[in-house]
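Ticket #314: bound-state structure for manganese (II) ion.
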Amino acid sequence: MSDSDAPSVRLATDSVVDATVEVSDSRMTELGGVTIRRALPQRSRRTVGAWCFVDHMGPATVTPNRGLDIGPHPHIGLQTVTWLLAGEVLHRDSVGSEQVIRPGQLNLMTAGHGVSHAEEATSYAGELQGAQLWVAQPTATRHDGADFEHHASLPQVELDAGVASVLVGDFAGASSPARRDTDHVGVDLDLHGGESPIPLEPSFEYAVVVMDGEVAIDGGHIQPGVLAYLGLGRAELLLRATTSSRALLIGGVPFPEPILMWWNYVARDREEVSQAHAEWTSGSERFGQVASSLPRIGVGPPPWTAHPAEEHQR
Ligand code: MN
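RESOLUTION: The complex was predicted; output attached.
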C-alpha cells in the first residue's frame, strides 16, 4: 500500500536515545482516493527496531470500483505487515497466495531475495482503514526465498484501558505466532479510555502511531498524523487514552545494519537496488508472477542511474 511514489531515501543507522517523546509529523500522500499518513521513515528517524516503514491509510469510504487497487509490484529484503481496522483487501503474491484480509487478521509477507504482490479491492463497500508496515530483514535471512503467512486471529491481552492484540513478537506474556527474523514487536492497542501501564522491554526502542482518537504519553498528547518515538530503556509506559482510541505500538532492538531503501526495496547498497530494479523492469523470474488482472507497477530507474552524466559533473 506504499506504491504511490518513489522516495529516494538514504538510510543510515539512527542515533539511539534514552527514554524520550520525540514527535514527528507524518508525510501525507493519496492513493486511489485514500489518504495515507506515512509515519516512518522520517528524515531524522529512519528505523524503530527493524521497523522501517509505517503507512496509516484512511479512514476512507471505498467501493469495489473506488479504493485501493495496487497492481503487482516487487519487494526485496523486507516483510510487509498488513493490519486493518475496517474494510477488506485482497492480497495476491508470486508465491501463489490469494488471501482476503479483514480486521483482526494479520497478513505477513516475507520478500527475502524477491517477491511481487498486488493489493486489490473486493466486493466490499464501506469504510476502509488500516496500516501497512515494513520490517527490514537481517542479512541472515534477506537473501532467502519469499514466504507468506495469514493469521486469522492473534493473541490478545486485557489492559486496564482496553485490549492489546499482539501482531508480531512478545507482549505482556503473549506471543504472536507470526514469523519474526529479529527482536521486534508490534501491538495494536484498542483503548476505551483511561490509563494503562504498558509493559516494555528496556533493550527495545519504541514508537507509537495513533490511528484514531488521542493518547497521552509523558504529558504529550499524541493524535493521528505523527510518529511518537519513545527511545530506549523503558520498562513500562503509562499510557492514557483521553478518548476511545486506536494506536500501534512498535519496537525492537535498534537495527544494527545500515540499510538503503528506495521505492519498494530494502537493501544495503545502490548496486543491490539497481540490480533488483533492472530485474523487475525486465520481467525477470526473480519476482515471479502474480495472478492479478491489474497492470504491473513500474517506475524509472533509481536517481543515481537516471542521469549518470549529471552525477559525474558534480
Ligand atoms: Mn507492497
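RESOLUTION NOTES: Helices lie at 270-281, 303-306, 308-313.
TICKET STATUS: resolved
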